[in-house]
TrEMBL record:
InterPro entries: GT87, UCP010361. It comes from Streptomyces candidus. The lineage of its organism: Bacteria, Bacillati, Actinomycetota, Actinomycetes, Kitasatosporales. It is a multi-pass membrane protein. This is Putative membrane protein. Belongs to the glycosyltransferase 87 family. Keywords: Cell membrane, Membrane, Transferase, Transmembrane, Transmembrane helix. Residues 471-494 are annotated as: Disordered. It is found in: Cell membrane. One of its GO terms (cellular component) is plasma membrane. GO terms for molecular function: hexosyltransferase activity.
Length: 494
């Protein structure tokens, strides 16, 4: 389905009361007769510049650590909330000694690099750009700077891809660019590489390029495991719409690109290659998860095998619930909505919910729920957790001083962290069950970022008759939109 007004962007200040209020800082909401064409500052360029600015502010927030706290013991980097894995792993994973990831064995308990192959390559390229002489402190600083430059490119790519995924809603990219949790966590680890590839993949899917989508998701999975989860929602949506060919092409593209990257290392350095997967299985219950609250509150530790089993079962149950929701919803859900739900389910049931995992969800949230009020409530929870985990680690590493957040306070921060994510999930589920509440569909659209799914008729739905795609005449009815035959008539109002 295509809208007759698809070349006319949707001004967020006309649909979102928070965006309208925030626009007062730059002169107020756009007027009815305002001229929006002819400016060099297009929405996508504004989003890109905003992302660069916020990323730079995130780097400034890390200055206390860059100058001294990374090198003055563990507590200082926590009290200043500026911790990053990047400088520590420069020496800790052999990059300072020019060791080759996956092939050269490391000293200590960590025998090999515990990251997927494409992330390992990203880390290695950054080490090539880092001077090989000078003291270790100087080299760690430069390594962090080099990685920040590479990660900033990824961050801008993410924001631009989100801005371009829905043609009529480019300003939704500002949700990503201005997300405070994005700026605070962007340089903790190397997650942005996988997120950029995933965002580019979703952009390709929105343009109907199934093979390009699959290739990019396969590459993203070679950098981080979670992107492969997007094939689950896509399977359900293609099932409901009967788009089996497109799903098959996307799946083959994913498998092919993942194998292309992994197979050489898998064959030549099998022990180093499998370290990421064995590490994930053997990892104990860790920070940010509800499993940690249970173990610390009860004083009883779970066996790793038991937690793996329980987490897998919970994830499967949630995926089954998402599947049932997809096939029984009054209207086929949008791809971004289900993508957010399945990734959130994976994070919420995982043994660890690290502060940077919020980066996985931010682009999906901008596409699934482009409403500033809900987004900012969630971001406030994430910022509180970002501060909470570092204050808790400061408390546990400050010795007799006990400076920071005690265990009970940290549990409250974790609960807030989890409830914020559940809140977004709940609103998305509400929008799926009550599609007239979905802000993306208020103009009569179906799934603008859904590619071949956009406007496609249902061929299978549990408990419902299939219906034809919406016609252009229905879209011209203004705020009153008929969602489809056999499903009743709903009114979409602001």
């Amino acid at each position: 389905m295509t809208s007759v007004h698809e070349d006319r962007p949707v001004p967020p200040t006309r649909q979102d009361e928070v965006a309208a209020a925030g626009s007062e800082l730059i002169g107020g909401p756009i007027g009815r007769w305002a001229r929006t064409g002819g400016s060099r500052l297009t929405p996508v360029r504004v989003v890109a510049l905003a992302m660069i600015g916020m990323f730079a502010l995130g780097m400034v927030q890390k200055l206390p650590c860059y100058n001294w706290a990374w090198f003055q013991g563990t507590s200082s980097q926590y009290t200043h909330a500026c911790y990053s894995d990047i400088p520590h792993l420069f020496a800790g994973r052999g990059f300072a000694e020019n060791l080759t990831p996956y092939f050269d064995r490391l000293s200590g308990d960590m025998n090999f690099l515990e990251y997927p192959v494409l992330t390992g390559l990203f880390m290695e390229v950054a080490s090539w750009l880092t001077p090989s002489d000078g003291d270790i402190k100087y080299r760690e600083q430069i390594y962090w700077i080099v990685n920040c430059g590479m990660l900033m490119i990824c961050a801008v790519a993410i924001a631009v891809c989100v801005a371009r995924t829905h043609r009529r809603r480019p300003w939704d990219g500002l949700l990503v660019a201005l997300a405070p949790a994005f700026a605070l966590t962007a340089t903790i680890n190397w997650d942005l590489l996988a997120i950029a590839l995933t965002a580019a993949g979703m952009l390709m899917w929105s343009r109907g390029r199934s093979l390009a989508f699959g290739i990019l998701i396969g590459l993203a999975t070679a950098a981080k495991l979670y992107p492969v989860l997007l094939l689950g929602p896509l399977f359900l949506l293609c099932w409901r719409a009967g788009k089996w060919r497109e799903f098959g092409v996307a799946t083959l593209g994913t498998a092919g690109s993942w194998l292309l990257v992994n197979l050489p290392v898998m064959l030549l350095a099998p022990e180093g290659w499998k370290k990421f997967y064995t590490f994930s299985q053997e990892r104990q219950v860790d920070f940010g998860s509800f499993w940690l609250i249970i173990t610390q509150r009860t004083g009883k530790s779970f066996q790793v095998e038991s937690v793996n089993t329980y987490a897998t079962l919970l994830m499967l149950l949630l995926c089954a619930a998402i599947g049932w929701l997809t096939l029984t919803a009054p209207r086929r859900p949008r791809f971004a909505q289900l993508a957010f739900l399945v990734v959130a389910a994976f994070i919420l049931t995982n043994k660890v919910y690290s502060p940077q995992y919020v980066l996985w969800l931010i682009p999906l949230a901008a596409l699934a729920l482009p409403r500033w009020r809900h987004f900012l409530i969630w971001q406030a929870c994430e910022v509180m957790y970002f501060l909470g985990i570092w204050m808790y680690l400061a408390f546990t590493t400050s010795g007799d001083k006990r400076q920071g957040l005690p265990t009970d306070g940290y549990h409250l921060a974790v609960a807030l962290h989890l409830m914020g994510t559940l809140y977004v999930c709940a609103v998305i589920v509400r929008d799926i069950l009550l599609p007239e509440r979905d802000s993306v569909r208020r103009d009569g659209s179906d799934d603008p970022s859904g590619g071949v799914l956009d406007g496609a008729p249902d061929v299978f739905a549990i408990g419902r008759t299939t219906h034809p795609p919406q016609c252009a005449a229905q879209q011209l009815q203004g705020p009153r939109v008929q969602w489809g035959a056999g499903q009743g008539t709903h009114t979409a109002t602001d």
